[in-house]
Amino acid sequence: MTFSGDLAAKHAWRGAFVAAALNATGMSIDFLLARDLPTMPIYPYAMSTLVSVGIIVFLLVRRQAATVRLGSAAFLANMAAILVALWITSGYWASSGRAWTPFQANKLGILAVPMVAPQLAAGLASIAGLTVIAIGKFYFLDPEFHRGFPVGEPWFILIYALFGSVLLVYRLRGLALEREMLRVQAEAAAADRLARTFVRLRNYTNTPLQTIAFTIELLRANTHGLKATLDRLERAVDKLTEVSNALTRYEDAHKWSPGDESLDATMMDEQLFGKESRRVHGR
Amino acid sequence: MEPHVGTGDNPHLEWRVAKSGSSPAAAAHPPSSVIDPRTIPHDPAPRVAASVIGTGFVLYVEDNDDLRELVVELVTVVLQRRCVGVGSYEELVGLGDEALGCSVAILDINLGPHRLSGIDAYRWLRDSGYTGQIVFLTGHASTHPLVVEAKRIGDAEIFSKPIDADRLRSIVEGDGR
Fold it and tell me: Which of A200, A204, A211 has the most B C-beta neighbours within 10 Å, making it the best mutation to test the interface with B?
């Protein structure tokens, strides 16, 4: 999984988890508020709460294997439980004869979805579901109950749906931008590490190269009959020098940090060649 | 670590100066050089006092033992010039006024981690009144902080390792700029 994908999966997991927790909390509070209604059944609240608790447990179990798809599936399952519960309970609220602000839970849900939806499709589906449930329930109710509703209901929820959708798109785009920035920063950090390695590799090899180059010159002066051999050795040094020169392009890419310049040779060895190198070569 | 002295007068003769004290304290009280009378079977070079170094020699400050000894030998044998090699700032300071007789000073910029650098060696030479040519040699990137600091000095050329023998010759002969 890529770094960006990893972060998206974490966002999805967290969004589904928070949505399930809000479901459990909200349904429990709604049940407490409805306890004075003798006809209000307990099963919609119990069902929704149990589903949310089950989703929470499921998400905790699958935390290490979180994916965006898993988060969206859990989010939609949680939303389905909420929609069923709201469909049932809203009818009882409307027919209770008490003053009731219609579809408050739906409106609250529409505003909460943009904050926690794992993906655009899951979020839009949830907002649409909350909207359709409210409008559909309105027309399923006895028209006698409509008289107690505020003017404009149930169409106010469409305004909520519009705002919720815009907020959803805005948040998801912000998250995507944030993930992209983090990805670019991670790539820049990786590039800097690579540049630092190349620069140190070059620093590390230049003195031995110099030693070999001067040794060749000394051998040329001191020995005879080795010209062909020394020429080959010199060409090899030239090739290595070309490699060293090629690595200079990374000099500008590497930003020296305080203390880098005094990097201990042992540390440099271990960074470049691993801890075994010094033991093997006995340098 | 002992400074290596090669004489260009006799390319087959290598001089080694035995020196006591290479600690920072030596900077304040340069130790007197002594003649090491020992003869090392594998190294027939006689050991002499630093005072015989004289003037007009090449001074090479390099912490890498192999390279330092090699350059001393190369300058001595091939370029026919006397050359003194020291491995650290402290050893340079230990030479005292003898060091100021060089015709050209070649300083490795980085003399080891947590050690005084070639730039410190440069400052010591200038502060001591040395007015001759100073050249920096470095294996580090041009963006390395020590190299950047060396560039600011202005009157010292900086060469990147590896240099070839012709470049070394031009430096030693004083037309390396």
Answer: A211
Q: Which domain holds residue B106?
A: 4-172
pLDDT tens column, A5-16: 688 899 999 999
A84 part of a folded domain = yes
Cβ within 8 Å, pair B168-A263: no
Q: What domain count does chain A have?
A: 2
- Span A220-225, mean pLDDT? 86
Contact yes or no for A160/A105 (Cβ under 8 A): no
- Shortest CA gap B67–chain A (Å): 5
Query: What CATH number does the domain containing B23 carry?
Result: 3.40.50.2300
Question: B115, exposed or middle or buried, with CB in 10 Å at 0-12, 13-18, 19+?
Answer: middle
B162 to A251: CB separation less than 8 angstroms, yes or no: no
CA distance B79 to chain A (A): 10
**Closest by Cβ to A217, choosing from B74, B110, B144:** B74
The arithmetic mean of pLDDT across residues A140-163, rounded, is 86
Of A126, A154, A182, the one marking the end of a domain is A154
Q: Do A86 and A211 sit in the same domain of this protein?
A: no
**Which residues form the domain of A268?**
191-281
Does residue B161 surpass a pLDDT of 60?
Answer: yes
Whether residues B141 and A254 touch (CB distance < 8 A) is answered with yes
Exposed, middle or buried: residue A143 (CB in 10 Å: 0-12, 13-18, 19+)?
exposed
CB B78 to CB A202 under 8 A?
A: no
Residues A203, B70: Cα–Cα separation, whole Å: 19
Note whether residue B54 is domain-resident. yes
B88-126 pLDDT, tens digit each: 999 999 999 989 999 999 999 999 888 999 999 999 999
Query: Does the CB of B126 have a partner CB in chain A at under 8 Å?
Result: no
CA A21 to CA A16: how far, in whole Å?
Answer: 9
Residue A120 sits in the same domain as residue A257? no
